[in-house]
Design brief:
Two copies of one chain form a homodimer. Chain A is built from four helices and three strands. With 117 residues, the first copy, chain A, is mainly α. The mean pLDDT of chain A is 91. Chain A binds a DNA duplex (30 and 30 nucleotides) through α1 and α3.
Chain lengths: 117, 117
DNA sequence: CCTAGTACCTTGCATTACAAGGTAGGTTGT
DNA sequence: ACAACCTACCTTGTAATGCAAGGTACTAGG
C-alpha cells in the first residue's frame, strides 16, 4: 500500500473517531464528576486520542447545549479544576445516543455480512 | 428537552453518521459494481441518509486515493453511468477499516458497560 | 523569584458534509 | 420537431469542527 492509500485509510479512521467523540466524552462523564485532563487520560485508554484543543471547545458546546454542568474545585497540586457532570438532560441524551449507536452498528453489520455471503 | 438540546443531539448523530460514511460507501461498493445513484438508494435503506453533493466528491477522493476505480456503461434510460468497484487496495482498506470499527465498538461497549455497573 | 508542572482557554488552518445550482444525455407526449 | 421531464453526472459556497500551536494563570520546590 503506498503513501496515498495509507493516508486515506488514516483519514477515514480519523473520521470514525471524530464521529464517536462526543458520545464517548458524554459516556466518560456519565460515570461521575471528572475534569478535562482526566477525561483525556480515560479516552486514551480506550484508543481514542483526543487533544486539549479539541476537548475544551467541545465541553463548552455541550455545556451550552445544556447537557453538562460543572463546579470548580481546588486541587492539591496546581490551579483549580472544573469538574463536569451530566445534567438530567445530558443523561437522557446519552441514552438516545446509545440507541443511535446500536442502530448504526446494525446497519454496518448487515453490510459486512452481505459481503461474506 | 428544549430545542437547543435536540439540536445538539441531532448534531452528534450527524457526526456519527459522517464518521462511518466512507466506510459504509466502501462496504456497499465491495458488494459489486454500482453507480452513484444506486449507492444513494442502498445507503438510505440502512438509515444512512447521504446526498449527491456529499457522495460525488467522496467518490472522487476515494478514486484518487487508489481505493476505487470505475468504468463507463450505457444506460437504457438516461445518460451513461460510472460504475465503481474496489481496487485490490480498496479491498484491503475495507478489511482494515472493519478491524478499526470493531475496536471502536469494543471501546464504546466497555464504556457503556461501566455505566450499568 | 525562577523554573517546572498542571490546568484552563483561544486562534488560525484544513477538511468536509451539505444545500443549491449547473450541464447534458435520453425518453415521452403533442 | 420541440417541449417537458427524468436521470446522471459534477461544482460552488457555506458552516461546522478537529487539531496544532500558542497563551494565561495558579501552585510548589529549590
Amino acid at each position: 500500500m503506498d503513501e496515498k492509500q495509507i493516508m486515506e485509510l488514516e483519514n477515514t479512521r480519523a473520521q470514525m473517531r471524530k464521529g464517536i467523540l462526543e458520545f464517548c466524552i458524554l459516556l466518560v462523564i456519565s460515570k461521575g464528576k471528572i475534569y478535562a485532563s482526566d477525561i483525556l487520560k480515560k479516552l486514551e485508554k480506550t484508543d481514542l486520542i483526543v487533544v486539549e484543543g479539541t476537548l475544551y471547545p467541545l465541553l463548552s458546546r455541550l455545556k451550552n447545549a445544556g447537557l453538562l454542568e460543572y463546579t470548580w474545585a481546588e486541587s492539591k497540586s496546581g490551579p483549580p479544576r472544573k469538574y463536569y457532570k451530566l445534567t438530567k438532560k445530558g443523561k437522557e441524551a446519552v441514552k438516545q445516543l446509545a440507541i443511535t449507536w446500536n442502530k448504526f452498528n446494525k446497519s454496518i453489520n448487515s453490510l459486512i455480512n452481505k459481503i461474506d455471503q
